[in-house]
Amino acid sequence: MLESLMTNPYAWAFLGACTIFSVVFGIWQWYKSKRKKELSCYKNSYTIVKGGKSLLPDLELKYKNEPIQELVITKYAIWNSGNEVLQREDIVEIKPLQVSCNGENTRILDVKILQESDETNQFVVVDMDKQHARINFDYVAPKDGIVIQMMHTGESQDVMVECKIKGGKSVKPLNKDKKYKYNKFVEKAMVIGLGILIFVMLFFMLLAILVSVMNMGQKFWENLISTIGMGACVLVVGGTYYKLLKDVYYINIPSGLRKTIGNDEFYK
User: 90 with 38: CB under 8 angstroms?
Assistant: First the structure.
């Protein structure tokens, strides 16, 4: 029986697949177990008023008695995406956690904290001016964080979250400003459509594998090559599908912060 197993191509294929899976799983476990101090952020922006004076010459817009041309609401989810507790002392003093703007026509009007996943983190907005608003905290456990609302002029791409962790990296942005934004209905329809497409592609890929196994003759390698090509297509479509899922359902954001960052409403 041992000799038959040694000469059985299916057994070798299964052993090879198990070996590849074990190596990939081992590398993934090693990467996940590495000590990591990291902050991530996710941004949602909504333009409330744009070019008010140019569109309506007789309309005068003011915020706290200051004339403004634009008004943009930007929400940021900021959280500990590492696997270690972050202390206040872990932040580089000259590069604190803050929101800032760098556009000529962009200035901060107001910043407030909408939600904390754990109030003992003691997040607080301090030292706010027209270009920066610093955020202090006591500590942040993994997956803990806040959602802040920032009212500003200018464009959403001119505002950012800045921070430098000692022995770590700068804040990791998980999304970029989109040139074109779709409404939620269209995005969810795209999720369903891509999901069906991936299911159909997986079905035909498994069918091709079954056919190639049943026909171990000359067509085996042809079927194998076509299966590998289809698998590559599934990976590409799957990557796009996962990115779309993250944008629509905010699955890369801690569950306690998703509802507030995904809510289109803003708070006075």
Answer: no
